[in-house]
Amino acid sequence: MIKLSGKYILKFLQNHYEFVQEAFNSSKPDFIIDNDILEKLIEEYNISNDPKISITKLIDVKFCRQLPTKDYKLDIHYTSFLQFIFDDFTLDLPQTLKDRYRTIFELFTELKTTNKPNKIIVLIQSIITVIDVFLNDIHRQTQRLLSDTESLKVNADEYSDLSKRLEKAVFWIDEYIEPLNKILEKGHPESFYSALVEIQKYTSEKQYVADSFKLKREYKKLYGSVIYARAELDHNLQKLTRELRPLLDRIKNDSIILSGFYHFVENVDYPENYIVPLPNPIKKTKGSAIFKEFHSEAEFFVDQFIYKTSDIYYEEQVEEQEWLPDSTYFKEQLLKEDKVEDFYLWCFDALKKHTDEITLSKYFSITNLLLEEDLVAEYKEDDRITIELKDASIKIPKVRVYERVSK
Amino acid sequence: MKEYPSEHKKIVNELLDGKFIISPSPLFYTIQELEDEYTEFFEKSFNFKLNIEADFSYLSSNEVNEKRTRDFTLFLAILSRELDYSGKNFRDKIEVGSFDISETKELLRQSSKWEILEKTTVSEFDKFIKTWRNKNLIIINGNKFKFTKAVKLFFSFAIDIANEKLMENMG
């Protein structure tokens, strides 16, 4: 073939749509495809498709060319078009965008200073093209970031590694969203947005006062492009700041919580590795007795000790705290019993197995089990028996205790 | 003798019971208003630290080594993980959603981390959530439960770990 025709290229794309998509996907993001991979794609495609495809044919339609490294590079005209038709855009570094919009400034400065009508027309056309390319870029970036962010949010398989997810979200915010925001920032004098405002002001006047009808028409075209560009930018900015940024921030923050929890769970048996101490809310430090008579008797006894020296009182507090963790153990023992006919006596006996020094505070810390919601206490008889503790003797009622059967 | 607010006894009782006091409870606003007085009161009287966060308050002590708090953190960590894995927004669900008790029990049992939870107080799930209901961390309504705002304390703990870890990796 001597000269490629547009129809031939479109026919090639239509006939081999699936192959083109495969090659496009395999070559992303730099659109360079490994020699072996391309051959394999061709081979697989040819098994079930007619007409067949070959490397020569691909080169003929300028779909790709071979690099000195033997790999194949897809042609840029194809890749821009394919990105558009597959709605699958690659990310440019914001630096690339920045360089592009700088040329708008330069062209505009030149436009303001030149008097030559032909040059004015060329400059206006160039500005319109650059704005168009720039808008297209911004649109591509936003779409790409949105779809990637969505997948980052839902695709647990690919991004199940939390630190990767976090890293990706932080990277996008720092490398794309922030710089894009700066480029587009409305209030900033050097932003793309300000350039548009400047051009709009300039052309809104020029479209009426330019020297010739032809120039007036060109200025009007530029004016129209700028107004359109501003509306488009507003739309994209909205996506960036109202949707994308909060979404990424959310992923970042959520991933932080999950990765913190992950680290905690992994080190749960090694508290020294938590790095940060666990929250340490206090446990219940006191309880009140259920039976009024018992309560007042108990208070009476406790009061006696309060009037002793403060040192002794302090020691008792410490003891009480030391005993509290054990209440879980005693509760387990209690539940094992199925039913206890004389709860207070049981408490005394249970304690006796562990210590001879049964103080009032130790005894109370166990009898407080009576307050547990899952235990039922039945109190029928008025008889009291006396129990001798180390620091007091108390009269106790007979109380039957058993576990509440949940409904 | 200084004057105490009318809710004083209730505030002291609830906090000493190891309960979280949560906004919009009037007790919370009284504590917030009298932050300095109450901080000193609990410090001097009991050697406890009074913590007042944006919307909840509680007492803490460095001398407390509560296995149950560790268990609750484990429970929350694994619940968050399972919700995230099933594609749900775990933070929204935990902060504002409600959970069916038996479904949650089942979700945890199916987790690969159940072997850890099984050895903790979480294994007796109904009892476990009642314990934390008593501390105002959970509200039970029929066969459903939801977390109170105090759950944020444990999210902050996770964020602190992750940030420390990030610093460690960078340093």
UniProtKB/TrEMBL annotation, chain A:
Protein's recorded name: Uncharacterized protein
Species this chain originates from: Kordia aestuariivivens
TrEMBL record, chain B:
Q: Which InterPro entries match?
A: MksE
What Pfam families does UniProt report for this protein, alphabetically?
Answer: MksE (PF21980)
Per the record, the domain of life is Bacteria
Q: What protein name applies here?
A: DUF1819 family protein
The organism encoding this protein is Kordia aestuariivivens
